[in-house]
Amino acid sequence: MDLIDMRTRPDGEFKWILHCRDHFTKFSWAYALPSKEARFVAENLIQLFFQFGSSHILQSDNGKEFTAQVIKSLKIMWSGLVILNGRHRHPQSQGLVERGNSTLCDILGKFMQDRDTNHWVSCILPAIYSMNTSLAQGIKHTPFEVVFGQ
């Protein structure tokens, strides 16, 4: 998981995107956040885990929003959860999600341009759907096919 800084293009109260990506399936989830406070990250992770189940390993960078106690407390609800934090200022340890962030921003920009809007929040779901239904070279299927079998 990682945060995308949208403070230069705020959409109402929203200034950040939480992007979560599964290493095996390449499936992505994205959530608009008003700030990068750990409580907003945790709220959306809880929503994700209740919908899809907890991941075995939750990997992020070393930002305080990912190392806060509210994130660590997720291990209470999901005892098998392992939380890994990368080295400070070392984005290479987050390669998959960093590349996914770039792809998401590119697709998001195209959706906004096509719809002639500056409201990126309304374009997040279509952009994520586009990513999840595009062929992933590493797995030779779309992430959607791998996760849902269709």
What does this molecule look like?
The protein is an alpha+beta fold and 150 residues long. The chain has a single domain, classed as Nucleotidyltransferase, domain 5. It is built from 7 helices and 5 strands; from the N terminus they run βββαβαααβααα. It has helices at 38-52, 64-67, 69-72, 74-77, 95-114, 121-132, 143-148, and strands at 2-5, 16-21, 28-33, 57-60, 82-85. The chain has a 3-stranded antiparallel sheet. The protein has a two-stranded parallel ribbon with strand order 4-5. A hairpin with a 6-residue loop joins β2 (16-21) and β3. α5 (95-114) packs across α6. The longest helix has 20 residues, at 95-114. The radius of gyration is 15 Å and the shape is globular. It starts with a strand and ends with a helix. The model has no long low-confidence stretch (mean pLDDT 90).
Mean pLDDT, to the nearest integer, reads 90
Q: Work out the radius of gyration.
A: 15 Å
Q: How far is it from the N-terminal to the C-terminal residue, by CA?
A: 25 Å
Helical/strand content category: alpha+beta
Which percent range describes the beta-strand content? 15-25%
Strand numbers in spatial order across the main sheet: 1-2-3
